[in-house]
Design goal:
By secondary structure, this protein is mainly alpha-helical. It has one domain. The protein is built from 20 helices and two strands. Strands 1-2 form a two-stranded antiparallel ribbon. Strand 1 and strand 2 form a beta hairpin. Helix 6 runs antiparallel to helix 7, helix 10 crosses helix 11 and helix 10 crosses helix 12. Its main location: membrane. GO terms for molecular function: transmembrane transporter activity. Probably involved in transport through the plasma membrane.
């Protein structure tokens, strides 16, 4: 691999030459595990369902690989061949399609009800006769939220590209300042539930940032490596941009549907909601509103998680190809981004849907707890508010654990097309046997990106609060809808940022998975990177049993 340029060079270049690296021999036996020696201790034997990859086997005497196209290039499907291809976890994929169709039907009916009473709901921020439910005023709010989410995510992604060395420092300092400043503002406004959340957020940010400092050099090297690969191979930045645009488009659709459900089905004691009798599906009730909101929220969590994880798997194919193939005579596979995307949409479609479903269920529960916590605080029940806040923390830990497993499982799925549960099991066992789990825990890229996405979510939620405060819509008298609107603004900001930043995390995670499967490739074909890893993180030699 070529020497890394940019911020990492100025950060890591020391006086003097790179240390000489001696590689301990490794022997792979029949793909069932590895046998190597390090400091006279044999690592534990591991048995995996998938053999560590050996790419470039088809090359003969440096010539074109056997079974490839005339230009000597393998395709992604050839480089990462599936022996017995099949559509894994197909039930989850079919269920996702059915849920999407259901969301489309609910959206169509609700939007028809909204369009038939558009004059009643106003044409902008003001002028609505609807004083009992969300209306066009709320749609304008969500437009602002989407714009802020997209702009913040794009700027944050650009900052990662332009200021790689400073990226982690900037993230930590901005999150602390944002948390403290917002908490003070909410205390002044006597919105105590939100103030408590931001106090906890600021304290957590401070603790994290202090603990991060010794691990920043290693994390910066990982980030710089991924950025260098993204600039040279595949279409990583284009994939990120497309993912961000798709997430904003879906966010706009979801926002319109959310408001339309209230417009169409929210009952009014005065009987002045004309949408209740319009269209082919009439009848208003609070139960109908709650049921439809639960469904569209769950559907949106699942759909956006699927978008994010499909993007993740596509980019993982690019980074996996770089790790295993860039040093081979034929180089990177032909059409690697397109090939990885095709696998994500075919053989791995069900597996990605399955993993996304688990996260969607957890996020749905966390959303409900967040709304309940804010409503209890608004009603003055601080004990219940604190209890819900603690429950939300436990759910957040569960979400972190599932997301942690998913990230590495999806990297494996992207390369080998395995079913979700076997991939998750094999990947986790393999990483622990190799010692990569300790290396992963010391890398800050995942936590930093999570903190950046959370900052986007809190910023959007804060914008929603300010919008409701200054426009003071009649439907929100007494803060009736403040908690709901802030929660959904949080959801939009979080999902847009996570999707936009997915390629960065995917690159780092796939590197760890690939290094765990075959660390010899790292030492032999990316020796410059391995030398830099030893410089900033000497324990890497023990962790990968080199």
């Amino acid at each position: 691999m070529a020497a890394h340029g940019g911020a990492a060079d100025s950060y890591y270049n020391k006086a003097g030459a790179q240390p000489q690296i001696s590689y301990a021999p490794q022997a792979y036996g029949n793909g069932t595990g590895y046998q190597g020696q390090h400091q006279d201790q044999a690592p534990p034997e591991a048995k995996y369902q998938q053999a560590p990859p050996n790419y470039g086997q088809n090359y003969q005497n440096g010539g074109a690989p056997v079974g490839t196209s005339g230009d000597g290039k393998q395709t992604f499907a050839q480089a990462f061949k599936i022996d017995k291809p099949k559509w894994n976890d197909l039930w989850a994929g079919i269920l996702l399609i059915l849920v999407f169709c259901g969301f489309t039907a609910v959206s169509g009916i609700s939007l028809y009800g909204y369009s038939s009473t558009k004059g009643f709901n106003g044409g902008g921020i003001y002028g609505s006769s609807n004083n009992f439910s969300l209306n066009t005023n709320t749609i304008v709010l969500f437009v602002f939220v989407l714009c802020v989410a997209f702009a913040f995510s794009w700027l944050y992604f650009t900052m990662a590209r332009a200021f790689t060395k400073q990226f982690i420092w900037i993230t930590g300092i901005l999150n602390i300042a944002f948390g403290v400043g917002t908490a003070i503002f909410y205390f002044i406004e006597k919105f105590y539930s939100a103030a408590i959340v931001f106090v906890l957020f600021a304290i957590f940010s401070i603790i994290c940032f202090v603990s991060w400092i010794p691990r920043i050099p290693f994390s910066v090297l990982m980030l710089q490596t991924c950025m260098d690969v993204a600039k040279t191979y595949g279409h990583v930045f284009l994939a990120s941009a497309i993912g961000g645009i798709v997430s904003v488009a879906y966010g706009a659709w979801f926002s319109l549907t959310l408001v339309a459900i209230y417009v169409k089905y929210e009952p009014n004691s005065g009987g002045s909601n004309p949408a209740c009798s319009s269209g082919s599906v009439g009848g208003c009730s609070s139960a109908k509103v709650i049921g439809l909101l639960v469904f569209v929220t769950f559907a949106s969590y699942w759909i956006t998680e699927w978008i994010k994880n499909t993007l993740y798997s596509t980019v993982a194919g690019v980074y996996g190809s770089w790790y295993f193939c860039s040093g081979k005579p034929g180089g990177m596979p032909k059409g690697v981004t397109r090939g990885a995307f095709r696998r994500s949409m075919t053989y791995s479609f069900g597996s990605i849907s399955f993993g996304s479903l688990i996260v969607a269920l957890i996020n749905m529960l966390r959303q409900a707890v967040s709304i309940a916590q804010q409503q209890e605080a608004q009603s003055g029940n601080m004990f219940a508010s604190i209890a819900f806040c603690v429950l939300g923390c436990f759910i957040g830990i569960l979400d972190w654990a599932v997301q942690f497993i998913n990230r590495y499982a999806f990297s494996y799925i992207a390369l080998y097309g395995k079913a979700y549960l076997p991939a998750a099991k094999d990947t986790w066992r393999m990483m622990k046997d190799r010692g990569i789990d300790a290396l992963v825990n010391d890398c800050l890229i995942g936590p930093v990106l999570t903190m950046g996405s959370t900052a986007s979510a809190f910023l959007c939620s804060f914008l929603a609060f300010l919008y409701l405060k200054f426009t003071d819509p009649a439907y929100n008298s007494g803060g009736k809808f403040t908690a709901v609107i802030m929660a959904y603004s949080f959801l939009i900001g979080l999902q847009v940022a996570q999707i936009f930043l997915t390629p960065i995390g995917s690159g780092v995670d796939t590197f760890f998975v690939a290094a765990a499967w075959d660390p010899e490739v790292l030492m032999r074909e990316h020796s410059d990177l391995y030398g830099r890893l030893i410089q900033v993180y000497p324990k890497v030699q023990q962790m990968i049993h080199a």
